[in-house]
Amino acid sequence: MVVPALKVDRSSPVPLYFQVAEQLQSAIETGELPTGSRLENEIQLAGQLGLSRPTMRQAIQYLVDQGLLVRKRGVGTEVVANRVRRSVELTSLYDDLTAAGQTPTTSVLELQNTTADDVVAHHLGIEPGTGVVRLKRLRCAQGEPLALLTNFLPAGFVRLTKKDLERAGLYELLKAAGIRLCTASQTIGAKNASNAEAQALQEGRRAALLTMTRVAYDERGVAVEFGHHLYRASRYTFAVSVATTRG
Amino acid sequence: MVVPALKVDRSSPVPLYFQVAEQLQSAIETGELPTGSRLENEIQLAGQLGLSRPTMRQAIQYLVDQGLLVRKRGVGTEVVANRVRRSVELTSLYDDLTAAGQTPTTSVLELQNTTADDVVAHHLGIEPGTGVVRLKRLRCAQGEPLALLTNFLPAGFVRLTKKDLERAGLYELLKAAGIRLCTASQTIGAKNASNAEAQALQEGRRAALLTMTRVAYDERGVAVEFGHHLYRASRYTFAVSVATTRG
DNA sequence: GTCAATAGTTTGTCCTGACATATTGACGTC
DNA sequence: GACGTCAATATGTCAGGACAAACTATTGAC
Question: Keyword annotations for this protein (chains A, B) (predicted)?
Fold first, then answer.
């Protein structure tokens, strides 16, 4: 039964429950709260922090939703296996490939200001016709194409250049511009490649492609990126580890 | 502003919030609450049902988590696009479709005892040649095929019959046999349909299929199911919501 | 040793109440 | 028409409290 040092800053604009969740998550990632360990009960934790129990519950539930904690009535709250959640985390593919030593390279196929059609507008929470930046890239790893990435960002958020985008991942550039990505909603699907897509990705006609559509939000809940990504199914899978919330 | 007829049964063992969520989901699926429509505010809804506001909020949040509703502070709660979007949680497709009112049916194509080859053995953490149960099913929803499901279970864990499997989901039957699924490791990918697969799923030649391979573990960490599932990409996507660990 | 009953522990559900924050529309001014 | 202000509206956060349900440990009977 480990008790990490937790504290909350009531003058911060960050909600109390989220401050607690962040610290617990930190403790899990650093190993201070190792896999398999049991948290103190929520009443004790709330008391320790001077918070109400529902607020403490909200913090814990947040991490349960992330799959980092599992709760059992009558037993307690346990840290579950610290899994590699590589492709469904809010990270950029560039960063992931770099971390995996796979030497990613990027070709910027398109970088232009345009206006949002209905679909893009819907996802970014803006009016159709509003200015957006459209970015299209081909990402390669180990000398061969891996993914076709199309992204839309609200105009004016960040200044992107082809040179920057070929050197670093999009999220790194957003971060450098002061944009903090906080949450994302993602949909994973599959489709057959169009001829252009098959050619760009060096796959056969109608090859199956893995798709991911993502809307990423900053800490205020403002949509800052809408992405539509195509991956070669022959080279790419998503690994997802989960824990039941109904155990 | 549509107001579906909602009611709660306080004598039911089903939590109030879940009863409400189910009814709202039903209204969404039947079109009574169409995409784009706005719910009454949570205070009014709670009052209408004689519930507390947090309970009403919990019901709504449940559907927000399912991707059926979107909330905006100061504005309200809106119904979003209605499509099969499964979360990447450790639930069975059967349960999810049932909850979504989509009337799943199952055809058991194969149910037999066999021995584990290298791949199956590896995933189940057993020796090659060990006895396993091989289960192959076609799952339909709303009268058309949705997925081809192949599962392997260690022999002796649970006694399955074709009849049982056509009536209920696999996880329900495991649960009824006292097996509690706790965690899972999943890989999501895509492939082109073989001719047999295309025919079974009523898709065209070489149609893109979404794949998921899963190993599910019980609370002791023992692998209790290895599944290889194929879904029609035209009818099926995965939804994943994430938060950054570096916010 | 086995089993059932009971007590203790912890999470799950639900309630009432209050304040904060974001959004939208109305209105007035320039 | 553009802009600013303000009120109304709706969600978001937080608090304190109570009871229920599930799980584990303990105890006593056999």
Answer: DNA-binding, Transcription, Transcription regulation
Structure tokens at B214: 């899963």
Chain B positions in Cβ-Cβ contact with residue A186 (cut-off 8 Å): 239-242
Task: Give the span between the Cα atoms of B183 and B166, in whole angstroms.
Answer: 25
Q: Which of the four pLDDT bands, split at 50, 70 and 90, describes residue B245? A: very low
* Distances from the Cα of B118 to the Cα of A108, B130, B213, angstroms: 43, 10, 16
Cβ distance of B187 and A238 shorter than 8 Å: yes
Give the range with max mean pLDDT: A100-104, B48-52, B104-108: B48-52
Q: Which residue of B has its CA nearest to A221?
A: B72
Q: Does this complex have an ipTM over 0.85?
A: no
pLDDT confidence band for A64 (50 / 70 / 90): confident
C-alpha B12: how far from chain center? 24
- Which stretches within chain B are classed as H helix? 16-30, 42-49, 53-65, 93-99, 118-124, 162-167, 170-176, 195-201
Give me the domain span that covers residue B58. 16-79
Q: Does B174 lie in the same domain as B123?
A: yes
The answer to whether B180 contacts A66, with C-beta atoms less than 8 Å apart, is no
Count of domains for chain A: 2
Residue B6 falls within a domain, yes or no? no
Protein-covered nucleotides on strand C (Cβ within 7 A): 8-18, 21-24
Residue B4's nearest CA partner among B35, B39, B36 is B39
Q: Is the CB of A51 under 7 A from strand D?
A: yes
User: Nearest 5°: phi and psi at B74?
Assistant: 85, -15
